[in-house]
Amino acid sequence: MKYKKWLSFLFLIPVFFIASASYYLLQDFGTYYEYSPEPAKMIKPAHLLDDYGYASYQPLVLYPMQSAPGDFLIIETASPFTGDELTISFDFPGTVSSIYQPGNLLYAVVAISYEASPGRYEITISQQGDENIYINTEVDIIDKEFRLSRFSMPASRTEGWTAARLAEDREKVRAARSTTVPHPLWIQKFIHPLDVRVSSEYGAIRIINENPPRRHSGIDLAADEGAPIIAPNDGIVRLAEFLLSGGNTVIIDHGLNLSSTYMHLHEIYVEVGQKINRGDTLGTVGMTGYATGPHLHWEVNIGQVPVNPEQLLDNDLLWIPPAYINTLIDSNN
User: How far is CA 191 from CA 37, 134, 258, 307, 313, in A?
Assistant: First the structure.
């Protein structure tokens, strides 16, 4: 019996050390893994240099693990930066959201253009000021095939259009997508605005009436006229009016330079400046503007660069760091 007690005690010693080590690691590094919506790509070491040439290593997370043209790429790191002159640069076609830093975390969303070629690219986070520092790493963009489609549109759909009016509409859309707040307006995951069949995919190469090819900047969702369209998340309405090509159009700012666009609506139920909650009805499916049948054109942009809207629904990709959620809750109370 005495030997059994000693064996039990000896067995508990390694268990204690394993549990202690696990607790320590989770305290130091849990932020980088616990809240990632899918397996994160930990780039380690990420090279950090200061003005004096001293190097250290800073955990840097990029996800999803495989990025393709048209994808979001999330950048997240424990922030060594203190100044306002902070930039994220890269050498592939695309753009980056506003950079925000809740607590000691730096968080940003990169839009990879559908024009990006597959390959390995460099990403640099840098600060210029009293202390010049940077984090430098690489990302692999994989190949992606986009569907080619040909179809015809009747000339009557563009009757009375003028180049001046089209240019005016494009400027309205550009201005709406440029109007944003520098932090997320959402704290919940995104939901589908119209959960129906996708009739035309994002990034598709379209040849209309034998004209030069154009890229489809969103997805088309086929539905009966009058079907309700809901907001996929919280935001502020930046545009709500009729455009020649888009027909009745709504653009919502979700903060952080992320916007969502809804075109060809039959009716619009919201107005510019209105705060929108997830699930609110924006309008109904129609075929106004450059359309031959009832459907919703749903587009998602970082700044002016369109990305695949279906990624918003992919396993809660755009999660919100808990430090920022706590700030929102405190400010609302």
Answer: 15, 36, 15, 16, 6
What is the Cα–Cα distance from 117 to 69, expressed in whole angstroms?
7
SS3 state of residue 320: coil
Q: What are phi and psi of 51, to 5 degrees?
A: -60, -25
Which residue is listed with tokens 């043209």? 69
User: How many CB atoms are located within 10 Å of the residue 234 CB?
Assistant: 20
Mean pLDDT of the residues in the chain: 78
Q: Residue-wise over 305-317: b if at least 16 C-beta within 10 A, else e? A: bbbbbebbeeeeb
Alpha-carbon torsion angle 70, 301, 313, 229, nearest 10: -130
The dotted CATH code for 148-313 is: 2.70.70.10
- Both tokens of residue 58? 């800073």
Q: What is the domain partition of the chain in residue ranges? A: 1-34, 41-144, 148-313
Q: Which of 284, 209, 290, 299 is nearest to 244 (CA)?
A: 290
Residue 181 is classified by DSSP as -
- As a whole-number percent, the residues of the chain with pLDDT over 70 amount to 74
Q: How many CB atoms lie under 10 A from the CB of residue 23?
A: 11
Ordered DSSP codes for 122-147? EEEEEE-SSS-EEEEEEEEE------
Task: Give the separation between CA 262 and CA 325, rounded to whole angstroms.
Answer: 27
Lowest mean pLDDT among 21-30, 137-146, 276-285, 324-333: 21-30
- Superfamily per CATH, domain 41-144: Immunoglobulins (2.60.40.10)
Alpha-carbon torsion angle 31, 37, 39, 43, nearest 10: -50
Q: Is residue 28 scored above 70 in pLDDT?
A: no
CA distances from 42 to 27, 39, 45, 101, 295 (A): 17, 9, 9, 19, 41
- pLDDT band at residue 84, thresholds of 50, 70 and 90? low
pLDDT at position 267 over 70: yes
